[in-house]
Amino acid sequence: MEWILLLFLGLVAAILGSIMGLGGGIIIVPALMVLSGYTTILEGITPQVAVGTSLLVMIFTGLSSTLAYVKQKKVDIKSGLIFFIGSGPGALFGVWLNKDINVNMFLIFFGVFIILVSFILMVRKYVKPIQLAKKGGVRRTYQNDLGDTVEYGYHPALGIAIAFVVGMCSGLFGIGGGSLMVPAMILLFAFPAHMAVATSMFLVFLSAIVSSISHISLGNVDWLYAAALIPGAWAGGMIGAAINRRLASDTVVNLLRIMLVIIGIRLIYQGITGA
């Protein structure tokens, strides 16, 4: 029964994470910690092991959803690789911080910031994206399902800097980083919502590889837990991408806003209680 519970946890986390580009770690990490007090197989699990195991699972969530989004032609692979220049080293830095840093105050401030981002998304139509640099700016065009051509873009240096912070949060908290990267792509770079989610999952996949390798080397991965979570995560990544395809852009953003508030409250609670 407990193994079935883990399989279901991986499935639900991956579906929600894939729909909104978050990866699912924000669900898996606290769920493992809560379940550790009620189940025999998870008894005594540490936060580091929960984070490390979550990141390993997110490799499969990220890969399955990325493959599904690539078929839908919604992944900006070139932009994802540019962002990975920042998120890769950021993930390694986050893993290093995870070893012994006291992050309680940081969790509180980060949680408040995440909630603030949710409210900014509410008025995103009145927020003007950062102007592209005349030289060195990356410009892209995307044709949505309605046939409209949308232009978006960013300066690589800014994109890499933001992705570094995203990667750091991924390695530190095991949350996948999408809670920051998706809003940044939508608000700052004018990415269409569906493309921001799809590209974020590609970035989650790449960053999770780097972070999980580091956590494996530190002994922070429980392979039995991962084996139970991965099948559900793989299926959930594809299911989430299929659901996302049927949702309107505003619906995707509204779901993201709700999830960001939940994430923010969870981080604040974790910072206050240390749980």
Automatic annotation (TrEMBL):
Database matches in Pfam families: TauE
Keyword Magnesium: no
Coiled coil: none
Keywords per UniProt: Cell membrane, Membrane, Transmembrane, Transmembrane helix
Bilayer topology term: Multi-pass membrane protein
Gene Ontology CC: plasma membrane
Transmembrane segments: 49-69, 81-97, 103-123, 157-180, 186-211, 223-243, 255-272
Compartments where found: Cell membrane; Membrane
Family in the record: Belongs to the 4-toluene sulfonate uptake permease (TSUP) (TC 2.A.102) family.
UniProt name for this protein: Probable membrane transporter protein
Organism from which the protein derives: Alteribacter keqinensis
